[in-house]
């Protein structure tokens, strides 16, 4: 028997003598092994390229890097920053089966600020949800009564990383 195996048996005997059962030993082993598997959790972060998604600006499709600010910082950002851009989203569209691609009101060189407040598009009764591709089209749809615009308290850090 190797020293490692006998050390394991002695440790197991000591633990069970102290009234700690197999379940406790399994829990301790799980806690020891968890950090080894945490790299998979970190890989699923929405930061970096994992947070990339398409978005329209003036009828052109771009790729943006997208990350929501912590809840604690969103309210103060909204009250203290007067130059936040708008990102239009439509949860109603998603729930009706249309994968709505977000719409931006600015990109670099057009009054761009990397902080964007989410505004929800809601189609009014009698109007079928559909993709809008510019802030101009969104303003026209709101003026005609086709949609309503509901600002949220959500703020995102977004950067345009390329065009499609």
Mean pLDDT: 75
Question: Helix/strand-derived class?
Answer: alpha/beta
The largest β sheet comes out as: 6 strands, mixed, barrel
In what order do the strands lie side by side in the largest sheet? 1-2-6-5-3-4
Task: Give Rg in angstroms.
Answer: 25 Å
Percent helix, as a range, is 25-40%
- The 3D shape can be described as globular
Count of helix runs: 5
Which stretches are poorly predicted, pLDDT < 50 over at least 5 residues? 4-12, 14-18, 22-48
Strand content: 25-35%
CA-to-CA gap between the ends?
63 Å
Query: What is the string of SSEs from the N terminus onward?
Result: HHEEHEHEEHE
Quickly count the domains. 2
By DSSP, the count of extended strands is: 6
Molecular structure report:
By secondary structure, the protein is of the alpha/beta class. It folds into two domains: 3-43, no CATH class; 48-163, no CATH class. 38% of the residues lie in helices and 30% in strands. It is built from five helices and six strands, in the order ααββαβαββαβ. The chain has helices at 3-17, 22-43, 71-80, 91-95, 135-144; strands at residues 52-57, 60-68, 85-89, 102-104, 115-123, 147-163. The chain has a six-stranded mixed barrel with strand order 1-2-6-5-3-4. Strand 1 (52-57) and strand 2 form a beta hairpin. The longest helix has 22 residues, at 22-43. It is globular, with a radius of gyration of 25 Å. The chain starts with a helix and ends with a strand. The model is unreliable at 4-12, 14-18 and 22-48 (pLDDT under 50).
């Amino acid at each position: 028997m190797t020293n490692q195996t006998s050390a394991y048996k002695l440790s197991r005997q000591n633990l069970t003598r102290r009234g700690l059962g197999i379940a406790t030993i399994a829990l301790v082993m799980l806690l020891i092994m968890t950090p080894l598997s945490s790299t998979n959790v970190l890989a699923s972060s929405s930061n970096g390229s994992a947070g990339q998604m398409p978005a329209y600006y003036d009828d052109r499709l771009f790729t943006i890097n997208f990350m929501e600010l912590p809840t604690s910082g969103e309210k103060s950002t909204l009250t203290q920053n007067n130059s936040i851009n708008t990102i239009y989203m439509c949860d109603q569209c998603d729930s009706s089966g249309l994968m709505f691609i977000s719409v931006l009101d600015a990109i670099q060189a057009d009054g761009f600020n990397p902080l964007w407040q989410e505004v929800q598009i809601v189609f009014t009764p009698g109007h079928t949800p559909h993709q809008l591709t510019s802030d101009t089209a969104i303003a026209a749809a709101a003026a005609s009564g086709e949609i309503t615009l509901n600002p949220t308290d959500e703020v995102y850090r977004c950067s345009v990383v390329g065009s499609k």
